[in-house]
Amino acid sequence: MKVFARLLALLVLLLAAVPGHAALPSPAPGRLSVYFLNVGQGDAALIVSPTGKTVLIDGGPPEAGARLAARLRELVKGPLDLVILTHPHLDHLGGLRAAVKAVGAKRFMDPGFDHPSEAYRDLLDFVGHEVGQVMSPEPNPQAPQTLLTVGLGEGVALTVLWPRVPQESFLANTRSDPNANSIVTKLTYGKTAFLFTGDSEPPTEEVLLQKPVDLTATVLKVAHHGGKHSSTAAFLERVKPQAAVISCGVGNDYGHPSPEVLGRLRDVRARAFRTDQDGEVLAVSDGTTVTLRSTKGTGATSLSGTQQAGSPVALGPIQPTPHGRSGRSTEKEPEPGAPRTRTPVEPPAPASASEATGERYVSLKGSKVFHRESCKTLKRSKNERTVYTSRADALRERRPAEDCHP
Ligand SMILES: [Zn+2]
Ligand SMILES: [Zn+2]
């Protein structure tokens, strides 16, 4: 019954098509915008919060770097507040250097999953120098059960659902461990939500399904470009997406998106958008309704067959999950749209500076900053380093890093 109610709430506006190559309209103030950028075979999504906070999730493949950088210059005014690399694969990290060079970034987060590729190592060295804070989505040690949530202003929150190392270990022996340990985030604003899944694998979906968290989302960024193994029926049934965005390249070698996934999306009545056919997709939420529109909007993926090319699609609020469904009656479901778990917090506050005697300070070659010797950023760089035995010595040559505040 709820499914039907939801479908009724899904209103299709028949307006004039957006011209194919035109830049999408700028969002009105007070709205949350999510741009699913057209980077070919890869992923890149830009979140712009009502207060102007920006988060870039992935940066597409290397060949998309120049186009991504140009688009970000149009969309972003200052440095990105946060860059998330969901996992260290080239179709997600390849354009990040160009993106950060173009507009700058204050923080960089990735799963912290070891990956031996040169491209990943180079990117870590680059962000180690260019980005103020490099972090992993580790639970706050003071409240290990609390999910890491980044507040983006006006009640918009970005919560990291996976991974949760060291609280829960990385998934291992999967089809692709880097994919399986993709950072999965849920963005919430009022009664609307977005779920970003990176290249999640079925074991990731199983882990998420076992968690006492509300996975419901208005818009789902479909895992792994629509690859057939991910987006299992059980997972989609819980997420209940009203729209699904698939980021993939025209005529890609992988056959993405798979007909199986398109079928499973159809089964849960999710309206599918795909960047290979629709171009850039923009979703704007006012906290109650999400309106999606695309640059091209061929309509070829319209699952109901009623969507006009390029027409905005308005999606209604998330419906409350009926109590007692699927044997989850003991699970306390948060009110739809309410802050999911706990009060949004800024990214983990670095340990406050203490002038502990005997502490050493380290600077990476080529860097203008110095870190505490224990700082995680250092562990993630293979660069040569200079060690200072006193803070005063370090201060003479460099400034304190923003991540560990030495
Ligand atoms: Zn990928
Ligand atoms: Zn991948």
Overall radius of gyration: 21 Å
Q: Order of strands in the sheet with the most strands?
A: 1-17-16-15-2-3-4-5-6-7
- Main sheet, how many strands, which sense, barrel? 10 strands, mixed
CATH classification class of the largest domain: Alpha Beta
Report the total helices.
12
User: What small molecules are bound in this structure?
Assistant: zinc ion
Structural category: alpha/beta
Oligomer: single chain
- CATH fold name of the largest domain: Metallo-beta-lactamase, Chain A
Tell me the count of domains.
Answer: 2
At CATH level 2, the architecture of the largest domain is: 4-Layer Sandwich
Which homologous superfamily in CATH is the superfamily of the largest domain?
A: Ribonuclease Z/Hydroxyacylglutathione hydrolase-like
Average pLDDT, rounded to a whole number, is 82
| Beta-strand segment tally | 21
Helix content: 10-25%
Uncertain regions: pLDDT < 50 for 5+ in a row?
Answer: 1-22, 298-309, 322-356
Distance between the termini: 57 Å
Overall spatial form: globular
Strand content: 15-25%
